[in-house]
Prior knowledge:
The complex is a heterodimer of chains A (206) and B (152). With 206 residues, chain A is of the alpha/beta class. Chain A has helices at residues 2-42, 49-55, 103-119, 135-144, 158-164, 194-205, and strands at residues 66-71, 82-84, 92-98, 124-131, 151-154, 171-175, 181-186. A 7-stranded mixed sheet of chain A has the order 2-1-5-4-3-6-7, sandwiched between helices. In chain A, helix 4 links the parallel strand 4 and strand 5 (151-154). The mean pLDDT of chain A is 90. In chain B, helix 3 (50-64) packs antiparallel against helix 4. Chain B is rod-shaped, with a radius of gyration of 36 Å. Chain A binds chain B through residues 11, 15, 18, 99, 101-103, 132-135, 137, 155-158, and chain B through 38-39, 50-51, 53-55, 58, 78-81, 83-84, 118, 122, 125.
Amino acid sequence: MNDQDSGADRGRRGWDRGRIATAIGVGAAVLLVIVFLIVGLANRGTGTSIQAALDRGQRPPAPDLTLPVLVAGAGLGPVGSEASLSDLRGKVVLVNVWASWCVPCEDEAPELEKIWRDYRNRDVVVLGIDVRDLTADATSFIRRHHLTYPSLRDGDGNDTEDAFQTSGVPESFLLDREGKIAWSFKGPLDREPYLTQFRRVLDSVL
Amino acid sequence: MRAVVVALIVLTALAAAPPAVASNHFNPSDVFRELRCPTCATALDVSNAPVARRMKEFVLVRWRQGWSKERVIDALAAEFGEDVRTTPPKSGFGLVAWLIPATAVLVGLAILVVMTRRWVRRRRAAGDEEPAALDPADGARLDRELERFGDT
């Protein structure tokens, strides 16, 4: 009888251990799902720290983005090789994020080419970053608008979006000689008063 | 003479006909469902974003040129990155995305089988156990109750 009792006790204890293990397993799974949800929500959307710093009158450091060269120039190249923003350190750089399917990008392209031609002898580089685009469409856009400034290519656009916290195209960023962001602009840089505003900031960093 | 004219007509018609489509050729709609728009992340067949329209044109042009479905999808993945596929590739690291759910289902089924067998065994063991001895006072009370039940 005692043997039976002790066997039953062992059985009950085993069942308890099993239940505890199951509870721990289910708890761990639920915790994992919660962690995934939190991480997913935290990484959703783009940050705003660059714009917030600019609004405070600060110059946040520009990210060091490395991408393949679409159009060589200003010491970047050859086409297909990798180039980094840090390769242009010491120069003032107007980074312009664009795509061939973007109509406002068509509108601002002649202005960007004009800025490049006006200022390239003063160590200013206009650097295009073509995002989420077909290579053939991008090169056709460049030919159509007779663009001569260098461009990089970011096929999925994620690196540029993460680095510059962009939310669309076109967007432009003016980097000073130390590689810090002095100014940013969402939308086409093709009309007043934005062009005057840009030239004023450009003159201040030259 | 008549035969020559007919032959010429047939030959002209054959020359004007569009190139034959290979028997293994794909349906462009299938490719539209297997690719997503890089700007709005929805499948190409439901996206009307400018880049999605360009991608659809790209697919149709390659389809007319006789490219295989895999070649078209690979070309667009090379342009826009692997995230452009709505389903991960069934090779390399992409295989993990297919194996994990399948493994999870198998593990779940295995756990279910083990738990069910354990539960059934425990129920059987409980059924085999002798009932606990009745307290003498309870036994006497039960007898009285049964007696009274029998009288009615």
